[in-house]
Amino acid sequence: MVNHLAIIMDGNGRWAQQRGLSRSEGHRAGAENIGKIAEAAMKYGVRYLTLYAFSTENWKRPAPEVNFLMKLIPVFCKSRIAAMVKNGIRLRTVGRTGDLPLFARKALLEAIDKTKDNDKLTLNLALSYGGRAEIVDAVNALLQAPDRPEKIDEATFSRYLYAPDIPDPDLMIRTSGEMRLSNFLLWELSYSELYVSPVHWPAFDEAELKKALDAFENRNRRFGDVAAKK
């Protein structure tokens, strides 16, 4: 069973282009799909869902597109807060969220506070996130720690990552058919299973999610050993 599912939500623009819509409409549809997939994931026993919502590289996009994406954050928070509370979904974020505009940060903090006691699913949004940035930030935090040990091992280093209390993903899904990690959870995905769907994110529904989860159940996970680990 997948305990922690990570998804690179790719293909909003291409989905919109195929329908003669603007990229903004694709992003809007993609944001609306988050709630549907979160609730579907809960049905299959997923406890943690990390979504790649906005990368450190996405700041390079045209200013109007970036501004629209930032404005989608409070829209998403306000439209989904009631459902998250009702369904027991806790909202969290990872990334350099201090780079987000104040109005977006305030909306996120409000939603995080209102859902902090929920325990059925943790919805973890990666915002202004980069895997290399996370590792660099962890190194800097470790160097500044007053009680840092003289020798660093993997377990010690992991405690300085953005979400050390969240287990590594069991499965990472990338939608829209692209075959790359795009700087997503580089440390945490070390032994995660990967699944690439040709379906663009706004059209990625519960049936497509089930295909990915079923594929995971048929994987032989050895973690470098000879025998599979169950």
Index terms:
230 residues, alpha/beta, six-stranded parallel beta sheet, 6 strands, 43% helix, 16% strand
Strand content: 15-25%
Tell me about the largest β-sheet: 6 strands, parallel
Shape: globular
Q: How many H/I helices?
A: 7
Any idea what the radius of gyration is?
18 Å
Structural class: alpha/beta
Contiguous low-pLDDT stretches (5 residues minimum) are none
Count of strand segments: 6
The multimeric state of the shown protein is: single chain
Distance between the termini: 10 Å
Mean pLDDT: 95
Helical fraction: 40-55%
Strand order of the largest sheet: 3-4-2-1-5-6
The helix/strand order is: EHHEHEHEHHEEH
Write up what this structure looks like.
- The protein is an alpha/beta fold and 230 residues long.
- Helices cover 43% and strands 16% of the residues.
- The chain has helices spanning 12-18, 23-43, 63-87, 102-115, 131-144, 154-158, 206-217, and strands at 4-8, 48-55, 89-94, 121-129, 171-174, 193-196.
- A six-stranded parallel beta sheet has the order 3-4-2-1-5-6, sandwiched between helices.
- Helix 1 packs across helix 2 and helix 3 runs parallel beside helix 4 (102-115).
- The longest helix has 25 residues, at 63-87.
- It is globular, with a radius of gyration of 18 Å.
- The N and C termini lie close together (10 Å).
- The mean pLDDT is 95.
